Amino acid sequence: MKVIDWNRLDEAARTESLRRPVQKRQNEIASEVARLIEQVRADGDATLRALTRRFDGVELGVIEVAEAEFESATAQLPADLRAAIDEAYTRIRAFHIAAVPQNLRVETAPGVVCERITRAIPTVGLYVPAGSAPLPSTALMLGVPAEIAGSDAVLCSPPQADGRVEPSVLYAARRCGIRRVFKLGGAQAIAAMAYGTESVPRCDKIFGPGNAWVTAAKLLVAADSEGAAIDLPAGPSEVLVIADDTASPRFVAADLLSQAEHGPDSQVLLLSTSAAIVAAVQQELALQLAALPRATIANLALDNSRIIEVDSVETAIAISNRYAPEHLILSVRDARRCLASVRSAGSVFLGNYAPESVGDYCSGTNHVLPTYGAARAYSGVSVQSFLTFITVQELSVAGLAGIGPCAMRLAQAEGLQAHANAVAVRLEARP
Amino acid sequence: MKVIDWNRLDEAARTESLRRPVQKRQNEIASEVARLIEQVRADGDATLRALTRRFDGVELGVIEVAEAEFESATAQLPADLRAAIDEAYTRIRAFHIAAVPQNLRVETAPGVVCERITRAIPTVGLYVPAGSAPLPSTALMLGVPAEIAGSDAVLCSPPQADGRVEPSVLYAARRCGIRRVFKLGGAQAIAAMAYGTESVPRCDKIFGPGNAWVTAAKLLVAADSEGAAIDLPAGPSEVLVIADDTASPRFVAADLLSQAEHGPDSQVLLLSTSAAIVAAVQQELALQLAALPRATIANLALDNSRIIEVDSVETAIAISNRYAPEHLILSVRDARRCLASVRSAGSVFLGNYAPESVGDYCSGTNHVLPTYGAARAYSGVSVQSFLTFITVQELSVAGLAGIGPCAMRLAQAEGLQAHANAVAVRLEARP
């Protein structure tokens, strides 16, 4: 990893040092995906079968996973893996259920009651990528809040070479009460859920991470008023670690590598106040990397990555706020005090015993988080992502008499006479 | 308005009867807007000046509103209008502040503390259209929640022919603590806030309604990872009224017209169980329409609109859930009981004394609401729209020892060895 001294950089070089890896061929991918979406809209299941043949090399029969496949998935999964999924489910549920918003009721003036009620988004589509490894954890991270919200959830995940969806994903989906899973991956899965086909129900909102094609498809359907809402614009995963002289170089190196192994376009940043820690982390990185099965991928990601030497933890947090990382690890003295200064991040890990991987799997927080700086304006997936808020107002005659004149005066200022009339006819008719 | 009997329609005709007015030239507008955004990104303020000359016919000097303009706006505004803005501000604030989310803390396992903290989105851009009338109410609806959240807010609104921003908008903005207002309208205002120029700060999220060009610009910047997040995909305004035989035809007609006067592409729907009410509403519409200054606009909107006769209020609510209206007025016996069946809507008005216009101005709820069916998956603007949630985890050594094996088992199943290592190195090093 390249080592940079923040104090020696001018403003342009600082901006450059925090630049994410460029998303290549974005426009080209968007055009390809737009064509593919049109095909799915035009020919539904037939297109899904053709695209699955082309991209996944699988001849789909029935697109939906049959009940027998769920049963055999459960039967063939090792008991300890089933137990780990169950355990993670329980903790994710415990944390997410605490975030269910309460209804609100405020009497804003005598006889004027305003409320906020919540409703589950009726139909939601969950996307669980496969890629280089199955991701039962993503099925949990999407399925648990959908279940708590009470949305009707369907899930798409690409078929393996044998035409089946990975058993651990099926088990995790069923654990969250999901009954309908479709053997679909990539942009075609997103298109199917956004517009519906003969097999796949049309979904109001689509969730989940994915590669550049999946992301392009999500952005396209979100921009179409006939399409679907989406959870987040997703990009490659990233971590920013802030380490002072109380950090453990071995732990820090392990955390950087756990992010780097995700993919060659992952980005990891280490900000440190200690030259000794920086040197020790680099040694540890070399040692630990040698033993990793995904060392090649991790090495490519480390090429995109940087170590930045800073003069204080405060400076490091200011840099982090500017970068707005998906994951932020505070391996510093009194990490909790530092948390107060954190302004933009997806999820924060305090101290030396909170590795990012516990958040990825089973601390209880969600791992579907804003990347690529989106943490400045977006939050990770939660129960709220599956809810809508509806406001309600109920007025007594006296309540309308009290606030009606204010509405009429503003309507007049805005030149909207019919708005004023809607109040006036009621006040004239007062019993 | 066209009258339709729901029971006589087949499924295709039902879908057709709930179709919104087609958004014309969407692709063409998107291409134009994309070029305009590129110009703003390339040439900043110079482009903003050129586009304002072209579209608003105004020669901009300094783009930002000067302190003296705020002062003269306050001075020239009638005292009763200032009072109405102040009154609306107070009630909107009272309702919105109740919705500030609390921090959460859950110990999901012994020694594993998960939290959710909230932060204001650092910089937000508010767009207040001008069009046919000034909209101080929109400045309040965006400014109040931004102020409560604690975001740094800037506001753009098109200059009038005299080169000034409408005084009531300036007064409302300052009432919400907004210090920076820019004389910019249309897609160029959105581009300026999304990417920043010499004068306009770059914003993390952009809020507010607007015409087709503004909406196209918002969708484009939201799809760009270098752009900005947005509040909602906005479309033409709409209301759906459900009226049984307890409704007042006069009130219902006034409500339909208050929506219809917004613009020729507004849509109003009346669903009624009572043929007598339907006939009486039509008579009232003709009477009230004749007296409206914006009768021409309202008439065009009514051409897009429909009265649907239904056999029960339950059927009407099912139709409403399918349509997912921005505004839903329940002028029915026991409206509150019916509310329980409402699944998708922006804001709901219960009974005969809650006209939509109180929600537009001063009941306390927000009037920036999801249109065009977006209420199925989106909520109106609230304080939360200006906040991000950050999750936090802090583990004791014993806490990690407790949940670490679960994370390691799942990491192994997903083929992510470095994720497992990040736990393992800590458990091996346990003090």
Describe the structure.
Chain A is globular and about 85 Å long. With 431 residues, the first copy, chain A, is an alpha/beta fold. The first copy, chain A, contains 16 helices and 14 strands. In chain A, strand 9, helix 9 and strand 10 (267-272) form a beta-alpha-beta unit. In chain A, the strands form three sheets. A six-stranded parallel sheet of chain A has the order 1-11-10-9-12-13, sandwiched between helices. A five-stranded parallel sheet of chain A has the order 6-5-4-7-8, with helices on both faces. In chain A, helix 2 packs across helix 7, helix 3 (67-76) crosses helix 6 (167-175) and helix 7 (186-195) runs parallel beside helix 8 (212-222). Chains A and B meet through helix 4, strand 2, strand 3, helix 8 and helix 9 of A and helix 4, strand 2, strand 3, helix 8 and helix 9 of B. Strand 13 (347-350) of chain A pairs parallel with strand 14 (387-395) of chain B.
Outline:
The structure is a homodimer of 431-residue chains. By secondary structure, chain A is of the alpha/beta class.
Question: Could you name the key traits of this structure?
Answer:
homodimer; six-stranded parallel beta sheet; five-stranded parallel beta sheet; 16 helices; 16% strand
Task: Classify the oligomer.
Answer: homodimer
Contiguous low-pLDDT stretches of chain A (5 residues minimum) are: none
> How many distinct beta strands of chain A?
14
Strand line-up of the largest beta sheet of chain A: 1-11-10-9-12-13
Protein chain pair with the most extensive contact, residues per chain? A-B, 134 and 135 residues
Helix-strand category of chain A: alpha/beta
Largest beta-sheet characterization of chain A: 6 strands, parallel
What would you report as the Rg of chain A, rounded to the nearest angstrom? 25 Å
Spell out the helices and strands of chain A N to C: EHHHHEEEHEHEHEHEEHEHHEHEHEHEHH
Number of continuous helical runs of chain A: 16
